[in-house]
Amino acid sequence: MIRLSRTLMLAAFAASFITTPCWAFTPPPSPSYCPWPAWKLPDAAGQPIIYTDPHGVQYTEAQMDSVYDQVCWQQDPPDTGARSAQLRAEFLARFGPPERYAYGPSAVEGLDLYRTPAGKGNAPTMIYIHGGAWRGGSAAGSGSMAENFVSAGANLVALDFINVIQSGGNLLTMAEQVRAGVAWVFQNAKNLGIDPNRIYVSGFSSGGHLCGVVITTDWAARGLPSNFIKGAVCGSGMYDLYPVSLSARNEYVNFNLDDTINKLSPIRHMQYINMPVVLSHGTKETPEFQRQTKDFAAALKAAGKEVELIVAQGYNHFEHNETFANPYGPLGRASLKLMGLQPGGALIWGQRPK
Predict the structure, then answer these.
(1) How far apart are CA 295 and CA 266, in angstroms?
(2) Average pLDDT over the chain, rounded to whole?
(3) Is 58 helix (H, G, I), strand (E, B) or coil?
(4) Is residue 70 part of a domain?
């Protein structure tokens, strides 16, 4: 009898919770193309189709805005910024600040070098290209992943570069600065005390796109060895800019400038890829970000390139990027494996190397 009474009381409370207006759930504010709940496209509602993907999936304008805005696809927005800041602060407290170098004439053309205590100049170096919808991000923000690389025996280089707002919508300027930063690391490797024969690149989101741009660059035409980049990990990037140009991103990116779509679509310049490439996306990312990654991987495989596709189960876009900091996460593990390293390989048992 007592058990039954408690059950009835709980049921009554639950019913009042659901039916009482003061307890009603209010969806968070968001653009009109982000209907609640997340993981849901806005209704086509008789609107014209503006894009059909290579697999026949059709999208309206509002739907294109949605599938190129990762914020629309977070069920429970994680505070990744706070987590990243904490990881970076803890790293700096233990290891000290990174070395700072300028690779170009403007104030923004700089990089942070997190040097591993292992290797004595023979350690691999991972160059990381941050994301931020081409509008934000910084090398400093990439410090959260430094401990994973440094402790495993790799140097981490995090690039700063102009954002597309500062460049007046010009993605070409951004791409040239990123290329210049990557080239500078190779050209100055001996002065930096790093191995010029063990340089890798990585990036995430818009940085994943720029990672794709870097590995599809004709480096020989720029006077550098065509094979100086030994491998790449490009996470959740965009590799064909045409569909991106149909989304709300065209409000701040000038995709019509000087053949930007063709010049900066990595899938159109695969002939220059001559290194192993790892591509990855999370299963809770937007349909187009998932498709772009899968289609680029398939195109690389069809072209006879060495490529690995990692599908990160249960990760949304922002959580996926965090796995670069985790030696056992999809992107962290893949990065270390690519460089031939083990998690924590630079650590001495029981203590950290001086």
Answers:
(1) 12
(2) 88
(3) strand
(4) no
pTM: predicted TM-score of the whole model, two decimal places: 0.86
Over range 190-216, report the average pLDDT: 97
Report the 10 Å Cβ neighbour count for 65.
22
Q: Are 67 and 287 in contact (CB under 8 A)?
A: yes
Residue 249 carries which DSSP code? G
Q: Give 150-183 pLDDT, tens digit per residue.
A: 999 999 999 999 999 999 999 999 999 999 999 9
Q: How many distinct structural domains can be found in the chain?
A: 1
Identify the CATH number of the domain in which residue 253 sits: 3.40.50.1820
Residue 329 belongs to domain spanning: 80-338
Task: Please tell me the distance from the alpha carbon of residue 8 to that of residue 277, in angstroms, as a whole number.
Answer: 59
Output the six-digit token pair for 303: 């072209």
Mode of pairing for the β-strands spanning 125-129 and 199-204: parallel
| Domain-embedded: residue 281 | yes
Q: How many CB atoms sit inside 10 A of residue 208's CB?
A: 30
The reported pLDDT for the residue numbered 13 is 39
| Within-domain flag for 172 | yes
